[in-house]
Amino acid sequence: MATVDFNRIWKRYGDVEAVRDVSLNCPQGEMLALLGPSGCGKSSILKMVAGVEEVSEGEITFDGKPVSHLQPGARNITMVFEDYALYPHMTAAENIAFPLKVRGVPKREAAKRIEGLIEMLALGDARDQRVSGLSGGAQQRISIGRALVRDPELVLFDEPLSHLDGDQKVQLRSEIKRLQQTANLTSILVTHDQSEAIAMADRVAVMNNGVLQQVGSPHDLYETPGNLFVANFIGEPPMNLYEVTIQQTGERVILQHGGLAIDFDAGLLSGAVSALTSNTATIGIRPEDVMVMTGHGTAQATHGNAAAWVKARVDYIEPRGDSDVLTLKTDAGAVVVAEVDGPSEFAIGDAAEISVAAGKVHFFSTETGNALGRMGGAA
Amino acid sequence: MSRHDGLTLTGISKAYGDIQALSDVNLDVAPGEVVAVTGPSGAGKSTLCKCIAGLERPDGGGISLGGREIAGDPPGKRGIAFLFESYALYPHKTVFENAASPLRVPGRSSSLSGAELADRIGRELDKLAIGHLADRLPSELSGGQKQRAALARALVQDSAAITMLDEPISHLDAKLRHRLRGEIKRELMARDAPAIWVTPDGLEALSVGDRVAVLIGGKIAQFGTPREIWENPASVDVARLIGDPPMNLLSARLRENDGQVTAELDDGMRLLLPPESVERLVAAAGKESLPDGAVTIGVKPRDIRIIRLEDIDVMTSEVVSLEPFGKHSLVTLSLGQSVVRAKTRDDMGVKAGERVGLSFAGSITFFEAKTGNRIVTGWEEQGGETERRAVPAL
């Protein structure tokens, strides 16, 4: 397996710039996810690695060797497609064996590799069955087996879980992750679904409009989103975002958004918010970081590093089993989404009070969208 | 329609040759209520919709809507706004004209002027984020865009006697799906008519249904509030459909030694169950029936704790994989020869291959091994009512 590098690559279709100056590194043995909405450029990158589309500018290297000029067949890459692309009339074992057969690999060696993969992918029961009768999850495992059987430099996963339903999806994504780690695969995953990227990849590259927004571990993207696009894209339900003016009066600092005033101890503003140069910013608060108390006037005195409680009403509730997602409206009309443990006792119309800990408030520049840090010294 | 009468289905059955698609389905939907119908593919969800819409004739049973029996009415007379799973868009009409078509039925005097109609359709298309595609033909749309055009056509029928949405958002990407399900639900809630929302996604059903009907093999397996379904799944089959991820289900045998009830997996692995959950089981099932009782034990992913191995009273396990979602981590763990998933806020930095301890906390659900029916769960305390059922074969 190879280390893959993208060095300032561009893809142009006529006047359209689908990929703009993207540099990425996927070390040997890692899975890198390309994540973004449709049209973000992730599929163009995949096609350029696979060699089915030319790189307009820049270079892709495997272990430092340029591959952009190589035909697809000369790159030793395999691909796992969303719709499996198996031969329906063949058995599981025959499908996995196919790439070896067309290459004329000796029978004994082929059999050894096929059996190893069947065991690794827990396909023993499916071994001699035609694939057309098997579940989607089993079919996708077979297509992974077929991808791995010829010992590729790189495995490309193109939305591999899109056609599976809930339970099978959850199961297969943890199996792919385990396989990727135990077999030490170098792989690139393309997906629009953040949960798939976060579940499987070592690092995730978030793309938008052909531009790389941020690359990092799932933890990094969640805890320290680099800009507003990533902040809004990663996390479900998405982060609450407000454009605020920052008013400092003696001992208090007030983040004002319309009629909503988030009121903190002034000392908390310095901390990690280093790059704050004006009195406006966009702040982000994750729904699970919004503290919600039922009733009005029942909340305890505010804890030193949290905002003063703000009165609100429950406008809508979305039960999700483990949690309830509450849409709250403050008396001043601001909308705040909170995620609380479920099933909760809240009902639509209930009075509530909300607050947030300073360390949970993310600051972004409204002009550039770039992250400025967090409040309250949670550096 | 009358404010006091929604939709009532009594004993609906439908067979196709030897295949019983629906058996004795009873369901009621109040005016202004959204009932989510969920179940695996082939459960009969779409057949049920077609029976209500009049596109299929049930073999038996009654359908009453707005206080009137409608089983004999032709489809066009029933006043139903229906989103088909297959969209059924007019290929030669634009998105706008498709959405407007139910408001322009010849012979029915529409109360909307041209400008009002344009405004109503425009608002719905904008809400579904396809306002910019109003002049496109269906052939120029992606699958998700077609689905939203068909959805707009169903939702603009503000005065429909009932709205039925068959998998309305299944082909949208996750982001849009999460946003739209709340917006569509609120639109339906504001109406004085009943609504049915069909989805194979159990979690979507919990999030949009005032009540949820779980349909399995043509039968209603459970009908209740999202909370009831989530806390007290009626059977193993229901439990499998609900949750992200669903409940862990373990086949086990209960044994009694010196007054202590313990559970053992098929491979001999001993499970350590919270004593209260066992007490509740004993209270529900009767102690005399416990020895060698075969059960399925249901543990919600959030009720599995990962702990250090040196702690006492732990089950030993190996981490299979870790999925760090930020607000929680999903950890797949081995337990004997079984695999369980834990959803935890603190994954203690464990890594694949590491050996850790496990414990079960909170509510354990016990199902009869033979029938898959629930015997008892740990939730009754919170729900208020304690449930006791005789379990013959335990």
Please describe what this structure looks like:
The complex is a heterodimer of chains A (379) and B (394). By secondary structure, chain A is of the alpha+beta class. Chain A has two domains: 4-228, Rossmann fold; 240-374, OB fold (Dihydrolipoamide Acetyltransferase, E2P) (Beta Barrel). Helices cover 22% and strands 35% of the residues of chain A. Chain A has helices spanning 42-50, 92-102, 107-120, 136-148, 166-182, 194-200, 218-223, 228-233, and strands spanning 4-13, 16-26, 31-35, 57-62, 65-66, 77-80, 154-158, 187-191, 203-208, 211-216, 240-249, 252-257, 260-265, 280-285, 290-294, 310-319, 323-330, 335-341, 351-356, 362-364, 371-374. A six-stranded mixed sheet of chain A has the order 6-7-8-3-9-10, with helices on both faces. Chain A has a six-stranded antiparallel sheet with strand order 13-12-11-14-20-21. Chain A has a five-stranded antiparallel sheet with strand order 15-19-16-17-18, with no helix packed on it. In chain A, a hairpin with a 2-residue loop joins strand 4 (57-62) and strand 5. In chain A, helix 2 (92-102) packs across helix 3, helix 2 runs parallel beside helix 4 (136-148) and helix 4 runs parallel beside helix 5 (166-182). The termini of chain B are far apart. The radius of gyration of chain B is 25 Å and the shape is elongated. The relative contact order of chain B is 0.11. Chain B is 23% helix and 32% strand. Residues 380-394 of chain B have low confidence and may be disordered. Chain B is built from ten helices and 21 strands. Chain B folds into two domains: 7-241, Rossmann fold; 248-383, Beta Barrel (OB fold (Dihydrolipoamide Acetyltransferase, E2P)). By secondary structure, chain B is an alpha+beta fold. The chains are: A alpha+beta (379), B alpha+beta (394). At the A-B interface, helix 5, helix 6, helix 7 and strand 16 of A face helix 5, helix 6, helix 7 and strand 16 of B.
